[in-house]
UniProtKB/TrEMBL annotation:
Keyword Transmembrane: yes
Keywords, comma-separated and alphabetical: Membrane, Transmembrane, Transmembrane helix
Ranges annotated as spanning the membrane: 7-24
Protein species of origin: Amphimedon queenslandica
Stated name of the protein: Uncharacterized protein
Highest taxon in the source lineage: Eukaryota
Amino acid sequence: MKKLFQTSFSLILLVIISLVFYYQRYDHNFVAVKRHTNNLTFPYPLNTINFNETSSSSSPIHSSANAKPTDIGISTEACNDVIKKYNISMNSFVLGLSYWEQLTMATTNLCSLTAFSRHWHARTVEPFTRNAEMWGLPSTAHYPVFHGMPPIYKGGPAKPLDSLFNMTLFNSHMLCSQYNIPPLADFEEFMLNANRSIRLLHFNFNAYGKQIPTAKEFSDDNHYINCLGHSYFKDFSSRLLSYLNAEASERSLPSFTVDAACCVNHRHLTTPEEMASKCGFQDLESLTVVIPIWRGYSELPTKKFRLVVPEDSPVLHRPVSSDISYPLNNGLLSNVTAYSHEISEGKDFIGVHIRTAKLGMLDYVSRKKLSTKCFDMTWELISKLQKEFPELPIKYFVDFGTYGSHSSEIGLGKRVSKRQFARRKINHIHYDPEKHGGWTDQGFVALVEQSAISNAKVLVMVGGGSFQDQILTRFKDRGTGKSGYAICWTKDSLFVKKVV
């Protein structure tokens, strides 16, 4: 009898301990979420936004009255106006899982998706960044490696975009004020308020082989296919849900489901409105769209890797690297100041940037050694500049090195560039994040160098691309440079062009 009593007491004690542990864990998760939402500001007066309450079983966890937008740290009239003008729902989200290509182009593509999502009355979820790439989901052990995507977050976790950009200026000044685009929503807000019924949206670029609809499955009358039944999307959905539902479980939130998948013929001239209609986006007040890979769009049908939109489409009015300087955060700017002083000691210099990945691509596409011609023109120009500005030292920057561009490592241009530099006994320079207390990340390093180069008195850029577009934009914005030159920016412009 005594033994039975001891056993019963032990079991009761074990149950009590288990319950205490469970509720402590629940409270911890709730407090973690609550701590985050308490720190969010709500800059948009709710009485300025018109919502119709939904009673669907797949409606968001919170009604629009309780939903909170991303913490952009300000109360901005411009963002209020955008929210009101486009009737943006606090419960509608578009989540891009990956952004093509590296950081500068990925930022441009992020801005293009926000402009596109606006016409669905939705906001784009702010992505995370690591090593010059943008991903829609934070780094945890649950993250699946999707087909067609490289292994990501290798070597450490990703960080929010505010590790690189001033997100207050990014949202309020750039997106809202200058382009009439709603601010980004953060991932925590998405997890709390998103409709649990996911609609996948895939743009068919024939990038994944036979598992995904090919051009043969589209027709002149049908550019949108229900592809949820395809084996690729069954596997994709499983991988996606394994991640999202693990994140939801950690927050004690309901699980997600994938209930639809729409494949779009990327060669078809389209609009956000047509896409919403053909893909069945009916409830725009409570919409959750997940896009595996977002490559942006263009009005040029020759851009086979992007969507094509009409020439007069309002979505074309969005931030691009050749028009606006993406706002950097203060920590990164302090590294720019320190690095700029290191390379120039406060004096003017001639800055030369070689985008070797683009030169290699030029050789590959043309099947000719055009990069050699580009270097010949570069050396000729630099010789002239040395005579015109004999007092200015020359600083050479390249896109390869310890923290260099991914694409430069596999490009033909890197080998050509190394030979050119060795032949002339030229040393190129790099920013060392460990020396200046910066983030040892390719994207962080690239932005520091990009901004430092734009401090040059005379600027020479070889190869082109969005990275050099942004260098030139920053150079023009500073307004203190004497002249700027672009060499071999496209396969059709193999010459020296004075751009400032």
